[in-house]
Design goal:
Blueprint (H helix, E strand, L loop, with lengths): L9 H12 L16 H16 L3 E4 L5 E5 L9 E5 L13 H16 L8 E5 L13 H7 L4 H6 L8 H7 L15 E7 L4 H4 L4 E7 L1 E10 L16 H19 L3 E4 L3 E4 L9 E10 L2 H22 L3 E9 L2 E2 L2 H13 L4 E6 L5 H4 L5 E6 L15 H19 L2
Parallel strand pairs: 3-4, 3-5, 5-14, 6-13
Antiparallel strand pairs: 1-2, 2-4, 6-12, 7-10, 7-11, 8-10, 9-10
Helix pairs in contact: 1-3, 1-12, 3-12, 8-9, 10-12
Bound molecules: glyoxylic acid (GLV) and manganese (II) ion (MN) (2 copies).
The site of one manganese (II) ion (MN) has 4 residues, from loops.
């Protein structure tokens, strides 16, 4: 068969995405499939069924990463790895992560239907806990697999209820036997929605990110002094929430103050005892700083950290800061980035280079092997929200780019 004219089945890809979207569906049209929840388990089970139907060998490792292995003509050659994640944010969308897994599955199905053999094996992967929303940090299982993070440290990470990641892996039956340890790879491909506004703004269908911004995560814990809000005078209070409020605005102002290309966000906060008539005596909040320039991100953090210490002192609220996670910015393999652009051109799809502001497991894979990603537009630039959306025709277009990028790699 003429491999050049091979195309994925867009309707089948749509149907797989729609079936997955029923697992953890939220009333407002999104999904809630937090990592290692019952919904995550159901999505994993369905993925494993679909992989076995294709004759793939399914391997689950000790971090719960699922590999669907399609043989190549020469099994001694390092495989082409492709995939993403099936977990979601709380009230997340129907495309983040799952598009990359269903896109890779559609590539395998297309090769299977056309009885196409490749020189190298092709492995699909679903990485555990990409989102990092339930258990911090994100991309923990690709991080362990890559050797950048410790397995037992990852197992011990707790969610807000105090359940550990290791216990939850076991509970849903996805603490596999295989070692979560890197093996030689030929390259890694990840297909994803853009999660930002650039492709739509530039009227492009395909994005070829040159890499991913660095990601720095911090956890801040403040202590105050609880008291009855009525009789306690305003002066002399130690209100942990007011200290946090000042700090949060410092984070929001940081990119404007520092200049350069960076973003800084506080997205999560817990306030205790969280009663309208008690002065808060305990607050936890998170800080997320991203930039293409690692040093710039670190200098920015140092500045805001000094502000935090000064605010805490002035308000008499002791502060504890933990650095939870740090990944350097991740420039992808230029040859593969160009392959995305060339392949899009061959398929008649308008494409552009860009940068990924969102983090991806591709960041850790990039530490091991030649890596690149394929992006398609997010309608209205919205993601990590229930209204997250991408046109079905764009999902199909991106999967065709993925198909031909993978085919080229798998026959090298
Ligand atoms: C991953 O979802 C991220 O935070 O970019
Ligand atoms: Mn994602
Ligand atoms: Mn995400």
């Amino acid at each position: 068969m003429d491999v050049q004219s091979l195309r994925v089945n867009g309707k089948r890809l749509q149907s797989s995405l729609q079936q997955m979207a029923t697992i953890g569906a939220t009333p407002a049209g999104g999904v809630q499939r937090l990592t290692l929840s019952d919904e995550d388990k159901r999505a994993r089970d369905l993925l494993c069924t679909w992989l076995r139907e294709l004759g793939c060998e399914v391997v689950v490792d000790e971090m719960g990463n699922i590999f669907g292995k399609r043989a190549g003509r020469d099994s001694s050659l390092p495989p082409v790895l492709c995939g993403s994640h099936v977990d979601s944010q709380p009230k997340g969308g129907r495309f983040d992560g799952i598009l990359g897994v269903m896109g890779a599955l559609e590539v395998l199905r297309t090769l299977h239907d056309s009885k196409i053999e490749t020189k190298r094996p092709i492995w699909l992967v679903d990485w555990t806990n990409e989102e990092g929303s339930r258990f911090a940090p994100a991309m923990v299982a690709s991080g362990v697999w890559a050797g950048a993070l410790e397995r037992d440290w990852a197992y011990a990470r707790k969610d807000i209820q105090g359940k550990t990641q290791g216990e939850e892996l076991e509970r849903i039956g996805y603490k596999g036997k295989a070692a979560a340890r890197k093996v030689p790879l030929h390259c890694y491909w990840e297909y994803h929605i853009e999660q930002g506004p650039m492709l739509e703004r530039e009227h492009k269908v395909i994005g070829a990110p040159k890499g991913i911004l660095c990601l720095h995560w911090y956890d801040v814990y403040l202590e105050g002094e609880a008291n009855q809000v009525g009789p306690t005078p305003m002066e002399g209070r130690h209100d942990a929430l007011c200290a946090a409020a000042e700090m949060i605005l410092k984070v929001n102002e940081l990119p404007g103050r520092m200049g350069g290309n960076m973003v800084a966000t506080v997205g999560e906060l817990q306030n205790y005892p969280n009663s309208r008539n008690i002065i808060p005596d305990r607050v936890h909040f998170t800080v997320d700083i991203r930039s293409w320039d690692d040093e710039h991100a670190l200098r920015s953090w140092e500045l805001v950290r000094q502000d935090f210490v000064a605010i805490a002192e002035r308000r008499g609220c002791p502060i504890r800061i933990e650095e939870t996670w740090r990944v350097k910015h991740s420039p992808f393999d230029e040859r593969l980035v160009n392959r995305v652009l060339e392949t899009a051109t061959e398929l008649g799809l308008p494409a552009m280079r860009m940068v990924s502001g969102a983090g991806h497991d591709a960041g850790y894979m990039n530490q091991l092997t030649s890596t690149a990603m394929v992006f398609v537009p997010s309608i209205g630039g919205r993601s990590h929200v229930e209204c997250e959306n991408t046109k079905w025709e764009d999902c199909e277009a991106g999967a065709n780019v993925l198909l031909h990028c993978i085919l080229k790699s798998a026959n090298e």
